[in-house]
Design goal:
Chain lengths: ~55, ~375
């Protein structure tokens, strides 16, 4: 959703370094990075709650 | 009894398999309407930045008898070139018709993903309902916008989903074969291979541990061999091209540089090269260099986490973990890569609805991809 706000309508605003769009793209990237971390932590926590290493 | 209650009673009385087929058919129809109606209207109709002229150009060279990689350079692998050639064969020289045929091709990839999600959900047991999974996929698709029509990444997403679904359904070697073909469409399916290897290792499938990669290599070789023989250097350039790209303007690494240029006057130059707008400065060169090792390191963490935490619970939990860690691996690759084109998020679309994690009896959590 954050990507669609920027692309394609406001892409050229990023090209000319419009501060609002630069911040919006940075936020999009930060959210995706946070998602990776949260998913990894969730996997580890749920595994511990389920009784640890199995298989 | 009003009509809604009647429909509910009729639906509840159907066998489970028929319910599944009915829901899948309804979503197939919905997706046809999304592509043919919604993506042509409102803000979705804005397609002024598109790659289809490049696809059209490459396809034209092929219909003129030129061989990719030998007679002209291309940054796309052979099966992607085939995806460009087919619409051109059907449309002739008419660019408008080419775009329509290409969009139809991507619609078919989208419909294949709907069918694959339906199949995967069946295998995942009661972890997520089919309506929720397909509803979320549809929502993510619309959230991504009509870019899904104008890039061939939908086909790459379909191949990734097909390889994972085949593998999760017990068809291990066909899963590997699809992975090999996927790499010949776009490099990104290669990120799944270590997950398959970890699966074989942890499940004690020693024979598949070497058979699987061999099958994937054979599938890759069947597609690549004619081009490798015709022009080894030209074919290798297809893959080296991506390694040599500079820091793209939308990448995670570029964001602090662009922020610093606005806040502190840090000098950056934005130039067009390698088919994208890129950031140039001394720090941009350092970041571009660091992005490779950093991505590899994060991917390694993802694979180690999968080895440690992906195999607890029942068979359905292990299958769900495969989709879950595939999504993390691809997201990690996107977030630390030196290029973050908007179409990269398409690779995640079919996986995210399947990343629901059981947070306790009867409770499930969403990973939150809808905001990215």
């Amino acid at each position: 959703m954050l990507t669609q706000i920027e692309f394609p309508h406001l892409y050229w605003q990023l090209f000319i370094l419009n501060p609002g769009i630069v911040a919006e793209v940075a936020l999009r990237n930060a959210v995706l990075a946070a998602m990776v971390v949260v998913m990894l932590v969730t996997a580890a926590r749920e595994n511990r709650a389920a009784g640890g290493l199995e298989g | 009894m009003d009509i809604i209650t009647r429909v509910e009673t009729w639906y509840a009385g159907l066998p489970e398999d028929r319910q599944r087929r009915l829901v899948t058919a309804a979503f197939l129809l919905l997706h046809v309407l999304i592509w043919l109606v919604l993506f042509q209207s409102l803000w979705f109709g804005d397609k002024h930045i598109t790659d289809t002229p490049i696809y059209y150009e490459y396809a034209g060279r092929m219909t003129d008898g030129m061989l990719p990689y030998r007679d002209f350079a291309s940054e796309y692998p052979p099966l992607a070139m085939l995806l460009f050639l087919l619409p051109r064969l059907l449309s002739g020289n008419a660019y408008g018709a080419f775009v329509s045929w290409f969009e139809l091709e991507m619609l078919l990839a989208d419909l294949a993903i709907v069918l694959l999600i339906s199949l995967a959900v069946k295998r995942l047991g009661d972890r997520i309902s089919l309506v929720t999974a397909l509803g979320l996929y549809s929502l993510f698709l619309v959230s991504n916008g009509s870019i899904v029509q104008a890039r061939f990444d939908m086909a790459a997403a379909a191949v990734i989903m097909a390889a994972l679904t085949a593998f999760a359904c017990g068809r291990r070697l066909p899963g590997w074969a699809l992975l090999g073909l996927g790499v010949m469409t776009k490099m990104v399916p290669a990120l799944i291979a270590p997950l398959f290897l970890v699966w074989h290792w942890r499940r004690g499938e020693r024979r598949e541990l070497w058979q699987g990669p061999l099958v994937a290599l054979a599938a890759t070789a069947i597609v690549a061999l004619p081009f490798l023989v015709a022009s080894p250097g030209g074919f290798a350039d297809t893959f080296l091209y991506h390694a040599e790209r500079p820091l793209q303007i939308e990448s995670t690494w570029a964001s602090p540089l662009l922020g610093a240029s606005k806040l502190f006057g840090y000098q950056v130059r934005i130039l067009n090269s390698f088919g994208s707008h890129n950031v140039f400065s001394p720090l941009a060169d350092v970041f571009a260099f660091l992005s490779g090792p950093a991505t590899l390191l994060l991917l390694l963490v993802v694979y180690v986490f999968y080895w440690r935490y992906g195999f607890s619970g029942e068979a359905e939990d292990r299958m769900a973990s495969l989709f879950y860690f595939a999504a993390i691996g691809i997201a990690a690759f996107i977030v630390l890569g030196k290029v973050f084109s908007p179409q990269f998020l398409i690779w995640l679309l079919p996986l995210m609805p399947l990343t629901y994690r059981r947070a306790g009896p009867g409770r499930r959590r969403c990973s939150g991809r809808c905001w990215c």
